[in-house]
């Protein structure tokens, strides 16, 4: 455990964690070992509900995480259109019956799930990619918003607004805690987010490149080697922009999608999530499928244990606030 809390914010007080750092839900990555390590380090981590094939599997993964830590952690429930129907109500019930106290929702409107979560005393953080969606989430009654800038891995939305603008634009309008997401991997990023009005930072790509993340070492090493230029935006032509690591598959998707009259069916065989999880994350074939990575990979210098990542972020942030920044005042 990190010995002292360096920063106390409305987020740390509201969610009962020691540090204003979040590991958001990541499909095929947000498993017990990683999330328990995040929790043990005093941050808030989210298991990925849909990483588990069934609601019963999710309940088992929650129990497995509890065997590894007594610290708070949550579950991410991402609500998106899928080829095969997902029993979201059953996953929600598994979360409630397992006694989870915090849920991160993402994707579609969380309104259908909020009454049940509220009745169970569960706090909800909703991920949004625009100020208007964040404001709507607050009106619905969520307890915090995670605002995703254009730099993020996954789905940055259609507006292309980077965090430097999006974060203060959101915090100006919201009265609930705001978690800054997209482009964060360092102590300087934490200080910047707090200065822009956020109450915490969310990191995904940085946590993939940790010892405890259950992905192939090739993936972790590639994140360290990559620069800010080594991501690619895909699916924009189909109204579902996604940022992934640049590789042979993402480039082929981009080329096929740019052709006149292209439809998603033309690239569906390349875009299979199962292909990415199995061939890339499990087997380490970096050109075998799509895998998520944000521009923050340019800031990742080595693969380290989660506790060391968080310790360094906090100590670097503390040094900036206590020594470097005051020294600029004359």
UniProtKB/TrEMBL annotation:
Signal sequence interval, chain numbering: none
Class of enzymatic activity (EC top level): oxidoreductase
Pfam families, per database record: NMO
EC id: 1.13.12.-
GO molecular function annotation: monooxygenase activity
Oxidoreductase is among the record's keywords: yes
UniProt keyword list: Flavoprotein, FMN, Monooxygenase, Oxidoreductase
Protein's name in the database: Nitronate monooxygenase
Ranges in a coiled coil: none
tRNA-binding keyword on record: no
Organism: Nocardia fusca
Domain of life: Bacteria
InterPro entries registered for this protein in UniProt: Aldolase_TIM, NMO
């Amino acid at each position: 455990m990190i010995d002292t809390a360096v920063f106390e914010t409305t987020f740390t007080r509201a969610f009962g964690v020691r540090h204003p750092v979040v590991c958001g839900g990541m499909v095929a990555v947000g498993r017990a070992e990683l999330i328990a390590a995040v929790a043990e380090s005093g941050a808030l981590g989210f298991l990925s509900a849909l990483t588990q094939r069934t609601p019963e599997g999710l309940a088992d993964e929650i129990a497995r995480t509890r065997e590894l830590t007594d610290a708070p952690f949550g579950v991410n429930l991402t609500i998106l259109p899928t080829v095969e129907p997902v029993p979201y109500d059953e996953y929600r019930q598994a979360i409630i019956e397992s006694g989870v106290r915090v849920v991160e929702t993402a994707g579609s409107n969380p309104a259908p799930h909020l009454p049940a979560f509220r009745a169970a005393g569960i706090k909800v953080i909703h991920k949004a990619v625009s100020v208007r969606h964040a404001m709507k989430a607050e009106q619905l009654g969520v307890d915090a918003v995670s605002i995703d800038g254009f730099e993020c891995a996954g789905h940055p939305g259609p507006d292309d607004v980077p965090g430097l603008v999006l974060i203060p634009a959101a915090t100006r309008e919201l009265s609930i805690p705001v978690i800054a997401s997209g482009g964060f991997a360092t102590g300087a990023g934490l200080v910047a987010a707090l200065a822009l009005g956020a109450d915490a930072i969310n990191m995904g790509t940085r946590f993939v490149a940790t010892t405890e993340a259950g992905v192939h070492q090739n993936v972790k090493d590639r994140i360290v080697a990559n620069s800010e230029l080594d991501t690619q935006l895909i699916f924009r032509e189909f109204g579902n922009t996604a940022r992934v690591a640049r590789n042979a598959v993402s480039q082929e998707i981009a080329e096929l999608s740019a052709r006149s009259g292209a439809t998603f069916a033309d690239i569906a065989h390349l875009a299979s999530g199962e292909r990415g999880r199995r061939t890339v994350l499990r087997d380490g074939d970096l050109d075998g499928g799509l895998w998520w990575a944000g521009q923050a990979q340019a800031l990742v210098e080595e693969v380290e244990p989660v506790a060391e990542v968080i310790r360094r972020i906090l100590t670097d942030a503390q040094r900036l606030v206590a020594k470097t920044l005051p020294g600029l005042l004359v």
